[in-house]
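Milestone 3.1: sequence recovery, worked example.
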């Protein structure tokens, strides 16, 4: 359970209708397999002990007695395990019959969770056999079935883990999710971070897609983990067919899903620290019920009287099987990625369009280097002008060659501007920079930060003054990854009048430019975009080789691979993970790509630079939020510029 991960399972065993002994044996077999896999919470289908499709056999005491005997047998099979298990079973109480989930741990039936909403339409006739739960409770006497030491209650209950306070487990049964006001809404308000659904959802055309969306959306709405476990092969096919569709979701993301009509076990790991972080961050998320964890009942909560049981888990490290994308900002699916890139370009260009219209700017001015960031910013400028129905010549693209500019980037910048039809200007800043060095007494051969930043600030001065010349505004090109690392010259490329890339991480910039190239109609434009994509990332502030073709400064050699830094940014800043947890996930995701030592080196660099460079982010120019991460001081991120990184660096060392 280290780092908040809990291994969970949705289990669909083979069953035979009304054959309790057979069903119990199959359930126990799957429990044993779950134990071998390190599962801590296992959920089985609705009424799986008897079979969901017993119909009027549910009126037979012989079946109901055998079901209770079977549940106790399942419980005894868990005596040497800390796994929390839920199985579906019919339960007699208060003179009625209830459709329940039996919650089992450590050799005992701990509680029976009754179903609230009974479907009695179309193919479903549950109200013929079962009573709906309306807040009543009952003690279930299992002594004659072999459980002697503990008398479980039948009532709505959440289970709170002693060792992991973030783990609070609630249960609902099938239709309880499908109604307008799901039971899980109240469980989440009571603090449940994991909802387990014992279901017997029959299959009809299109229902699997709806079911998947339903589970995903509910887990997102509740900011919770969700285990949906459904009945499968073995249920009666007299009038229905069951597919065993199992789904494990976390805050809107499907972590694991079974194939239809294949009984078995679906396993993944849910990150409960991640869920509780997000709940704390969302100010509109309701506070949990103020529980007195030493007592049993919460008292009346909205419409539900929710009882509390405590349970314990052995603290072991959870082996991870779920996937963590190396590039979390980029969809893995090509079609989804293209759709995302198209949407981002629309958002960027509409944001810039509004700013141009509001300021009545006659032009926009942009520094164009032949690199990725300025290329994307220029494409956005072109799209904004198209939205305004203005000519591309209202874009003034300025290339400012100096000591580190290569022939390749200079040529690409010119071809790009020519193909886009923008106004192209070249201002060689070499003489101005040399004069500046002379003015301040800096030796040209001293290639320190003064040498580099002198060029960056000269370029910004040129852009600002040209903007004054042409009644324009300067469009910034810096991206989110550079802002996170502080890889920008203060009051140099750090400054503009509107930053269109400020919320775009470097790894995503590449894909957006790739998408534009793939979909444009000009072969020459496509070729130059592809060549820009093949050019190493560099600020080109150190002199080239003697031929002027080879750059001597490559950003990723200096600050580290951007794919690592974007990974650190997403999990360390967006989700607030501890550096040690970020490192664990990075080692898992990038296994075989980077050594542990390399990951540690650049992780330390990330946190050291992230803290020391906050002063640059504290005075950023405007720029629209595009994705889930932004470092604007007016948006998602507020941080003192003099905060100390010691705690985070020490966590890495541990």
């Amino acid at each position: 359970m280290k780092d908040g991960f809990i291994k969970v399972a949705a289990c669909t065993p083979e069953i035979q209708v009304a054959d309790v002994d057979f069903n119990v044996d199959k359930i126990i077999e799957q429990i044993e397999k779950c134990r071998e896999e390190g599962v801590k919470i296992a959920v089985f289908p609705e009424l799986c002990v008897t079979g969901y499709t017993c119909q009027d056999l549910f009126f037979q005491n012989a079946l109901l007695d055998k079901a209770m005997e079977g549940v106790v047998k399942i419980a005894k099979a868990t005596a040497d395990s800390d796994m929390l298990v839920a199985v579906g079973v019919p339960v007699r109480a208060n003179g009625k019959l209830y459709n329940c989930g039996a919650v089992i741990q450590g050799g005992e039936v701990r509680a029976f969770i009754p179903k609230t909403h009974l479907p009695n339409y179309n193919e479903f006739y549950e109200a013929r056999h079962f009573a709906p739960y309306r807040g009543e409770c009952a003690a279930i006497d299992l002594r004659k079935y072999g459980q002697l030491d503990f008398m479980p209650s039948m009532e709505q209950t959440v289970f709170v883990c002693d060792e992991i306070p973030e783990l609070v487990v609630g249960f609902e049964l099938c239709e309880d999710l499908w109604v307008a006001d799901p039971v899980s809404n109240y469980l989440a308000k009571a603090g449940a971070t994991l909802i387990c659904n014992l279901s017997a959802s029959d299959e009809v055309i299109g229902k699997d897609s709806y079911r998947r969306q339903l589970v995903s959306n509910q887990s997102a709405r509740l900011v919770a983990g969700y285990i949906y476990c459904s009945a499968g092969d073995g249920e009666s096919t007299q009038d229905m067919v069951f597919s065993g569709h199992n789904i494990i979701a976390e805050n809107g993301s499907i972590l694991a899903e079974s194939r239809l009509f294949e009984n078995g076990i679906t396993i993944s790991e849910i990150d409960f620290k991640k869920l509780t972080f997000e709940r704390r961050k969302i100010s509109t998320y309701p506070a949990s019920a103020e529980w007195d964890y030493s007592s049993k009942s919460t008292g009346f909560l909205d419409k539900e009287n929710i009882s509390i049981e405590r349970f314990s888990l052995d603290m072991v490290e959870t082996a991870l099987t779920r996937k963590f994308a190396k590039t979390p900002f980029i969809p893995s699916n090509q079609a989804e990625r293209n759709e995302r890139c198209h949407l981002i370009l629309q958002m960027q260009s509409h944001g810039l369009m509004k700013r141009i219209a509001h300021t009545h700017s006659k032009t926009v001015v942009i520094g164009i280097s032949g690199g990725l960031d300025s290329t994307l910013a220029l494409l956005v400028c072109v799209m904004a002008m198209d939205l305004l129905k203005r000519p591309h010549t209202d874009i003034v693209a300025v290339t400012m060659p100096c000591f580190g500019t290569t022939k390749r980037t200079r040529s690409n910048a010119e071809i790009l501007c020519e193909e886009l039809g923008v106004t192209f200007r070249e201002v060689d800043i070499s003489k101005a920079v040399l004069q500046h060095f002379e003015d301040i007494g800096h030796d040209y051969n001293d290639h320190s930060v003064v040498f580099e930043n002198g060029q960056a600030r000269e370029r910004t001065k040129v852009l600002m003054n040209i903007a004054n010349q042409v009644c324009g505004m300067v469009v910034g090109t810096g991206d989110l990854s550079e802002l996170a690392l502080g890889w920008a010259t203060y009051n140099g490329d750090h400054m503009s009048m509107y930053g269109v890339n400020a919320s775009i991480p470097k790894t995503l910039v590449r894909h957006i430019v790739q998408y534009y190239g793939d979909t444009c109609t000009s072969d020459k434009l496509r070729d130059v975009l592809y060549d820009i994509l093949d050019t190493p990332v560099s600020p080109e502030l150190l002199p080239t080789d003697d031929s002027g073709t080879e750059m001597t400064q490559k950003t990723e050699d200096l600050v580290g691979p951007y794919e690592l830094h974007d990974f650190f940014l997403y999990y360390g800043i967006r989700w607030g993970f501890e550096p040690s947890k970020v490192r664990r996930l990075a080692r898992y995701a990038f296994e075989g790509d980077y050594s542990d030592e390399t990951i540690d080196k650049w992780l330390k660099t990330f946190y050291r630079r992230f803290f020391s460079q906050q002063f640059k982010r504290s005075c950023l120019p405007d720029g629209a939020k595009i994705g889930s991460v932004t470092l604007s001081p007016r948006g998602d991120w507020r941080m003192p510029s003099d905060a100390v990184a010691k705690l985070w660096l020490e966590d890495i060392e541990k």
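Residues 334-359 form the longest helix (26 residues). Confidence is low (pLDDT under 50) at residues 291-303.
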